[in-house]
Specification:
alpha+beta; three-stranded antiparallel sheet; 13% strand
Length: 386
C-alpha cells in the first residue's frame, strides 16, 4: 500500500513511476461462452484497463457443426434445409438463396406465383427477425418490457407461418422451382387484414418505449462508431454497413424474384454508431411492410412450383448466389462435378464479417458500452460458426 503523498507530485499529478504502473495494470475478463448478451455460445476474451476496453478477442467454434461438409453429402434438394439452422432467424431467406442457386444452374424458370410467395415470406421473416432483435437488444441493456411487446406481434406472425409451413422457426418451405405447396387458405387474409394492421398500429409504442427514451439514447448515441471506410474494410453488410452509409442491399443491387417489381427504399444512415444501426432496422420494418402490402393482394394465379426432376444434377462448374438476409449478405458458392451432390460448398455468412468489427468499434470505450455495440450488430452465433 502507498500513502497518497508517495503517489502524487506537488501539482497532484501521478509520479512517472506510478503512471507506468497504472498503464500496465491490465486484466482480462471472459464473457461467455454461455452468456445471455451473446445470444448463443460466443466467448469474448476482453482485455481491460480499469473499465476501458483495450481489446476484444472473439473465441468461436462452440457451436460449429460442419454444415458445409455435411452439405457435400446431401442432394441438391436436401442441402437447402440444413441452412435453416445457420441464421435460424432468416431461415426462409437462407433456403431461398440455396433454391435460387440450383435454379440458376439448371436454368429453371420459377412461376410468378411462387416468386410472389417467396418474397412475401422473406419480408415476413425479416420483420420477425427485427422484432426479436429489438426486444432482445433492449433486454440486454436492462429494459425487460420491450421483449414482451416485440413477442406480442411476433407471435401472430409465427402462427401464420405455422399454418402454411408447419413450423414456427425453421420452416423448410422453399424448394428448387418454387415453394413446397400453396400458402394456407387464410394466409392472405391473416397477413393483410390481421398482422400488418396490428404491427403498424404498434410501431409508435416501440418508438415511445425505446427509440425516444432518453436513457436508451444516452446508451447508444456516439457509441460503437464504425466509419464508411471501416465498414467496407471489415466486409460488413446488411444494416451494420448501411448504418455507416454503405449502399449494399442485395435486393436493390442484384434483385431476385420479384424484388425488381416492388417500390421500396434502401434504408441508409450515416452516423455509423449504435443508434444508426438501431434506426436502420426499425425503418427496415416499415419498408418490409410496404413490400408485403404491394404483393399480398396481387399474388397471381398459376403454379406454385416449376416441374423439376426428382433427382437433380447440376452441370459441371462453379455457381454463386447471394441474397439479403435480416443480417446482411448471404452468399452460397457451389462447385459441381456434374453429380447429385456438391463437390464443394461454401457459405459467406453476414454474421462472421459483422462480428469482425467488434474489437474495432469497442476499443477505447467502457465495458458498459459493449452490450450496446454488440447488440446493434445483431449477432446470431450459429450463422458465424456453421
Amino acid at each position: 500500500m502507498y500513502h497518497i503523498n508517495e503517489l502524487l507530485n506537488s501539482d497532484n499529478t501521478l509520479k512517472p513511476s506510478f503512471v507506468a504502473m497504472k498503464e500496465s495494470d491490465d486484466y482480462t475478463i471472459n464473457i461467455g461462452p454461455q452468456h445471455p448478451a451473446t445470444h448463443g455460445v460466443l466467448h469474448l476474451v476482453i482485455t481491460l484497463n480499469g473499465e476501458t476496453i483495450k481489446k476484444v478477442d472473439p473465441d468461436l467454434g462452440f457451436i460449429h457443426r460442419s454444415i458445409e461438409k455435411m452439405c457435400e453429402s446431401l442432394s441438391y434438394r436436401q442441402y437447402i434445409y440444413v441452412t435453416s439452422r445457420m441464421d435460424y432467424l432468416s431461415s426462409h431467406i437462407n433456403n431461398h438463396a440455396c433454391a435460387l442457386l440450383v435454379e440458376k444452374a439448371l436454368q429453371v424458370e420459377v412461376p410468378e406465383r411462387a416468386q410472389y410467395i417467396r418474397v412475401i415470406m422473406d419480408e415476413l421473416t425479416r420483420i420477425a427477425s427485427h422484432l426479436l432483435w429489438w426486444g432482445a437488444m433492449a433486454m440486454d441493456m436492462g429494459a425487460f418490457t420491450p421483449y414482451f411487446y416485440a413477442f406480442r406481434e411476433r407471435e401472430l406472425l409465427t402462427e401464420i407461418m405455422e399454418d402454411t409451413c408447419g413450423a414456427r422457426l425453421t420452416m423448410n418451405y422453399m424448394v428448387p422451382g418454387g415453394v413446397m405447396h400453396d400458402p394456407h387458405e387464410t394466409f392472405v387474409h391473416r397477413v393483410s387484414k390481421e398482422f400488418l394492421p396490428l404491427l403498424k398500429s404498434k410501431l409508435h409504442e416501440y418508438e415511445e418505449l425505446v427509440t425516444g427514451n432518453i436513457i436508451f439514447q444516452n446508451r447508444v448515441n456516439g457509441v460503437g462508431l464504425l466509419t464508411y471506410e471501416d465498414a467496407i474494410s471489415y466486409g460488413c453488410s446488411g444494416p451494420t454497413a448501411r448504418a455507416s452509409g454503405v449502399h449494399c442491399d442485395i435486393r436493390k443491387l442484384y434483385p431476385y424474384d420479384v424484388y425488381n417489381k416492388v417500390q421500396f427504399e434502401e434504408v441508409i444512415e450515416t452516423a455509423g454508431d449504435s443508434m444508426a444501426r438501431y434506426m436502420v432496422r426499425m425503418n427496415e420494418i416499415k419498408q418490409s411492410i410496404s413490400i408485403i402490402e404491394q404483393l399480398i393482394n396481387n399474388i397471381p394465379e398459376g403454379d406454385f412450383q416449376a416441374k423439376t426432376k426428382a433427382v437433380l444434377k447440376l452441370p459441371k462448374g462453379e455457381f454463386y448466389q447471394r441474397v439479403e438476409t435480416a443480417r446482411g449478405e448471404l452468399g452460397v458458392f457451389v462447385v459441381s462435378e456434374g453429380g447429385t451432390t456438391p463437390y464443394r460448398i461454401k457459405f459467406r455468412s453476414p454474421g462472421f464479417s459483422n462480428l469482425s468489427c467488434l474489437d474495432h468499434i469497442t476499443k477505447g470505450s467502457k465495458i458498459g458500452d459493449l452490450v450496446a455495440s454488440m447488440g446493434t450488430l445483431d449477432l446470431v452465433i450459429p450463422d458465424i460458426d456453421r
